[in-house]
Specification:
The chain has about 450 residues and is α/β, with parallel strands linked by helices. It has helices spanning about 15-20, 45-50, 55-65, 80-85, 95-100, 105-115, 130-145, 150-165, 190-195, 225-235, 255-265, 280-290, 310-320, 340-350, 370-380, 395-405, 420-455; strands spanning about 170, 200-205, 245, 270-275, 300-305, 330, 355-360, 385, 410-415. It is built from 17 helices and nine strands. The chain is globular.
Length: about 450
Amino acid sequence: MDFTYCEFPSTVSIDTFKAYFNPNNVRLPNINSKSLEQFQPETGEGQANQAKSLRHLVLDAIVSNWCELPLYRQLSRRQDRNYLLTQLDTQLPLQLLSSHIRDDYFWRRSYELRWRMAPFQPRGRERRWINIYMERHVQEFIENMQTGDYEQDGNVQAALDICATYINQLEINRLQPAPPGSESNDHIPLDYLLSNLPDLRRLRLSYSSKTAGIHYQTGCNQITARDILLLAKGLSQCHELRKFCLHNTKLLSYQLRFLAHSLDKGCHHLKELSMLHCAVGDAGIRCFLETCGKESFATLTVLDLTNNKITDEGAYTLSRTLVHVPLVRLVLRLNPIQSDGAAAIFHTLQTMPIRELDLAACSITESITKLFMMLMCQQKTLLSIDLSNNDLGEDFGKHLLKIINCNKMLEDLDLRNTGLSLAMRRKFQEILLKNSERKKHQAMKQQKRDRFNSMIKL
């Protein structure tokens, strides 16, 4: 059986194929430079010398001359298009390929041939592979660009002309440092790039340099005044941005003013804001919040400030502003806010629709016991709390064991490395498991009730 001329852009695993066909009697196509024939000896000269059909000779000619005559939509038969997708060279000019081909199979093949590992896509939330390819292409383009190679009307505009319409998510994990001997440590400007990505919904950014090598100089890993001004200018034009994450980049207080103003005035649909390992400090939190008003960040649901040197003073300042923000998830892990800062946060959360709270490794002690018990009894929306790596002690666990049954909503409580015994933590897990099972049972009953009501209406 001859499968050399693949008519469908999909494959199955070798084990599945062997379950239905005898590999000794089958010839497979050579796709992505892989074929079962590499592992099987020739079974006969007749198969090896089999002549190609006229149709496949014509298609091979189209593939060979595709740069001069890019035919794809003109092929009426789907089988011909599929054959073209499996044989077409992925190293052809990107502008030529993107203007003629949108098929997911081809762009996934191109991605895997260029970067080997394909990203995981959750079932039901699959994205188009041409978008994934273009996003990775732009990421690589930005991360590898030297500051002296930046040309706004040249290479940057050329990349935007090809890729801009496909960019929904952008992740930049590093930027090249300024060359040695430069007067400043400025990185490549991002204002023009961000301003010309109209459909950008998610941005993850770091100004750190991972390949400084022998050209390392003091300050090459820091964001400069020019960098923050241009970043703020670009963010103010990202009107569709939903998620913004700035990580591993030290931020000074005055820089946070520009950042807060641009996010507040430009990103009207921002839902998630993350500043991770940025050494913001109490002064930075104060400057950021002073720029905001009561109606600022009205759509924000997730705030992640992991490892920013925030103390109890910064936590108190933050708690006064959070009242006006509809947060669902708050992360303050690895910040030494201590018990006083946690008390301010707990007091604010009693009137908020918060669902997830992360205060791991925040130097909280057992003095917070009373306020935490009040939070457990009064808060009716919390589903997950992380208090791991805090010095809470056994007495905290004993008091919590008495009142935890009052809370019927909580599903997850992380108390590892808090001084509680393993037996006590298992008791908490059993109680919370009952909460989860009870809510599942109630959801099933409600589903049956709704189905019954719909049948009555019919």
